[in-house]
Amino acid sequence: MIVHLIDGTYELFRHFYGLRRFVKGEDPPFGAVLGVLRTVVQMLETGATHVGVATDHVIESFRNTLWAGYKTGEGVERTLRAQFHPLEDALASMGVAVWPMVELEADDALASAAALASRDPAVEKVCIWTPDKDLAQCVRDDRVVQIDRRGNKIRNAAAVREKFGVDPAHIPDYLALVGDSADGYPGIGGVGAVSAAQLINRFGPIEQFPADVLGGDKREHALLFKTLATLRVDAPLFSDVDELRWRGPTSEFPAMAQRIGDARLVERCEKALAKLQVGLRTDMPGE
């Protein structure tokens, strides 16, 4: 089986600002939610069977206590923020596994889900649908890959090395040195992408750098930023990967689809489920 893990927060932002190119005046109250649901339904229609969506129930996380400049919900537009929780409700009513994160971030949930799913020998591949640089640390050969829908690229371990100059396991070290403006930490002054990769490939992780490479506060800050960049993989999201199997929408979904403005989603889900069930029957021994 192939497990699909979706960055729900990224998708919500993507659809919210993408819709603005076509809408003049007020933002539709559930426009971004509808966009995400259509994306998920399209994946189900094209054969996805095991799907999980991670969301930031709140923007802040434990990392805000470690670094004052870490990203917060400040600046998130009111009409966008108002769609965070309805997205979670809509996905749940569609019957899709959804993980709303509070102390941890959606990226931590994706990393944890990827780690859990990849341990199951029945899982052929894990696809993480997000362009976020920090998720590159989860890539493992061709078994766990990152899919950048925006750039229409699939990144396995070789592609991560080609893009960043380091192995996936060293992405936290790389980001600690170069910084991540999206997450709100600056990296180490004077260290760019090329020099960061050279240092890591020469010495290994930051902990193994000789004392004279990053002296004084630089080393201390680099280790702190590495902690910020390192995704957690211990969130207890599920105990069996079959919990991610999509079994169709709940009885609440028709009302939800009507509320967010596309009743046809119900019919699309029904057809997708029928197609999946036919596929399951033909895969059974003796069929």
Question: What are the SSEs and their pairings?
Answer:
Blueprint: E1 2-7, H1 8-19, H2 31-45, E2 50-56, H3 78-81, H4 84-94, E3 97-101, H5 106-118, E4 125-129, E5 144-148, E6 153-155, H6 157-164, H7 171-178, H8 193-203, H9 217-229, H10 253-260, H11 264-283
Parallel strand pairs: 1-2, 1-4, 2-3, 4-5
Antiparallel strand pairs: 5-6
Helix pairs in contact: 1-2, 2-4, 2-11, 7-8, 7-9
Characterize the structure shown:
By secondary structure, the chain is α/β, with parallel strands linked by helices. Among the domains are: 2-130, Rossmann fold (3-Layer(aba) Sandwich), CATH 3.40.50; 169-229, DNA polymerase, domain 1 (Orthogonal Bundle), CATH 1.10.150.20. The chain is 43% helix and 11% strand. It has 11 helices and 6 strands. The chain has helices at residues 8-19, 31-45, 78-81, 84-94, 106-118, 157-164, 171-178, 193-203, 217-229, 253-260, 264-283, and strands at residues 2-7, 50-56, 97-101, 125-129, 144-148, 153-155. A 6-stranded mixed β-sheet has the order 3-2-1-4-5-6, with helices on both faces. Helix 2 (31-45) runs parallel beside helix 11. The radius of gyration is 20 Å and the shape is globular. The mean pLDDT is 94.
